[in-house]
Amino acid sequence: SAETSPSVVFENIEKCSPNCLRLLLENISGLTVDEDFTVEEIPEIKVAVATFIKSIDAEEFVKKCLQHKRVREFKMTARVLELTRTIKAENLPESISPDYITVYFESARNGGGPVSDVQLFSEENSAIVTFCDHKGNT
């Protein structure tokens, strides 16, 4: 059985304010923001990501969203966020080493897992961290 992500991506969110989006998602899901799910907005690309803490059928939730009158009025789209093995870590200290990043992200306490690669971009104070599987990047 294929695993699905507990996250849903909403695109074209510029017509819906952040508070309106949160309320809309509560109305559609019947769940409570911050208790049952979180919403992270990425305004640079007009996207928001809802990540469910409470277990839900993400595919079914996407279907409900796409059929919802307000979602259609706002011309938003929704899709299940694909699982990934790679993340970008930003705002890293200038003197950080790839070894430190590896050890940090392999820590179970930090929600990590086995890391297969770290690419450090010191000019941006960022790094691309690749895990051995998608479960290590929560």
Question: What's the gist of this structure?
Answer:
By secondary structure, this protein is α+β, with helices and mostly antiparallel strands. 26% of the residues lie in helices and 28% in strands.
What does this structure look like?
With 138 residues, this protein is of the alpha+beta class. It folds into two domains: 7-80, Alpha-Beta Plaits (2-Layer Sandwich), CATH 3.30.70; 86-131, RRM (RNA recognition motif) domain (Alpha-Beta Plaits). 26% of the residues lie in helices and 28% in strands. The chain contains four helices and seven strands, in the order βαββααββαββ. The strands form two sheets. A four-stranded antiparallel sheet has the order 2-3-1-4. Strands 5-7-6 form a three-stranded antiparallel sheet, with helices on one face. β6 (115-121) and β7 form a beta hairpin. InterPro entries: Nucleotide-bd_a/b_plait_sf, RRM_PARP14_2. Residues 4-82 form the PARP14 second RRM domain. This is PAR14 polymerase. It holds the Pfam family RRM_PARP14_3.
